[in-house]
Amino acid sequence: MNGLSLKRLYALLRKEWIQVRRDPMTLRLIIALPIMQLFLFGYAINTNPHNLPTGLLVSEPTKYERTIVTALQNTGYYDIKLYSSEADAERALVTGEALFVINIPPNFDRSVDRGEQPSILIDADATDPSAIGNATAALGAVSSVLTRDLPPNQQPQPTAAPFQFVVHARYNPEQLTVLNVVPGLICVVLTMSTMLMTTLSITRERERGTMENLMAMPVRPIEIMLAKVVPFIGIGYLQAVTILAVSAVVFHLPIRGSVPLLLLSLGLFIAGNLAIGLTFSTISSNQMQAQQLAQFSLLPSLILSGFIFPFRGMPVWAQWLGELLPTTHAIRIVRSVLLKGNGVAAIAPELWPIAAFTLVVMGVATWFYRETLD
């Protein structure tokens, strides 16, 4: 038995290969999932978002104002929508409907003709600095767009522009990356931990041989599903509170909104992730399959949710996929409550997709569990 025997090694390798072939589903997952992720993320990732929703406030359309609006649209970064009042434009900025609000002051043309270099105020949603960075950088080229329209005697000095943009970075004035990353990280950590906690629950019962005990109990499938999920909701809440406290103390994350509202919203998000893990657990025949499925779903939650790359930089089809993920809406909720101080009315459009997703996935898990019983 001393020394390495190639014959014995070959026999062991052959035995392992036979075991792998006996589980074709796991083999398919190992091969297919990386290829799917390669194509999905290769086409979806874009760090330079264009056509960003932009609100425009203008007292009355004039020649210069139309020239500026056209120049902004020609940069490719601004998708401009006219708002009739400051209240409507502010509401769009607060809810995330618009990332910019451009306010052209009254008598703008007259001020330009007089050489007063008037200012155009731009309020920018800086909760995601990477999404607006290139768009604000493009404003420098737009500032000189009126030069050719001015009479020779009104041309500004070579070092001056006829007007200037003044950008106010709202909600994150210093455009600190940490204020964008940490709220998203809260959701990503909860996604990873809560999903993995339930992913192995049913498969573990099956591999340990205790599934028969559950099947013999006088309980309904939905009751077993809830029993698997509810304890982990408490653990998820403990994680959420801990992460929030550490983020506030260590990273100085501002908490401008209601903490109870945030925790209630995160509770719904936690339930959705637990339902996903439970579904993977019911459709998998072993723990390796369940882990493969969990890993496959975690990457879209990282890439397509707007956590790492700007959400609006992705193509439309990728944004549709991202809208289906609870993590996408949870990140918006956390940023909205913590950084903007928003309430229920502002985050309601993000709550109902998570609730609908949780109900659907929980129903799917229950249906698959019934199939297991049959």
Tell me what the structure shows.
The protein is an alpha/beta fold. The chain is 64% helix and 8% strand. The chain has 16 helices and 5 strands. It has helices at 6-21, 24-44, 63-74, 86-95, 108-113, 129-137, 139-142, 177-199, 201-208, 211-216, 221-250, 259-283, 287-303, 316-323, 326-340, 344-373; strands at 52-58, 78-82, 100-104, 119-125, 164-170. Strands 2-1-3-4-5 form a 5-stranded mixed beta sheet, with helices on both faces. Helix 8 runs antiparallel to helix 11 and helix 8 (177-199) crosses helix 12. The model has no long low-confidence stretch (mean pLDDT 84).
Overall pLDDT metric: 84
Which consecutive residue ranges, at least 5 long each, have pLDDT under 50?
none
Compute the separation of the termini in Å.
49 Å
Number of E-state strands: 5
Question: How are the strands of the biggest sheet laid out side by side?
Answer: 2-1-3-4-5
Shape label: elongated
Q: What letter string, H or E per element, gives the SSE order?
A: HHEHEHEHEHHEHHHHHHHHH
Using the CA coordinates, give the radius of gyration.
27 Å
Structural class: alpha/beta
Provide a count of the helices: 16
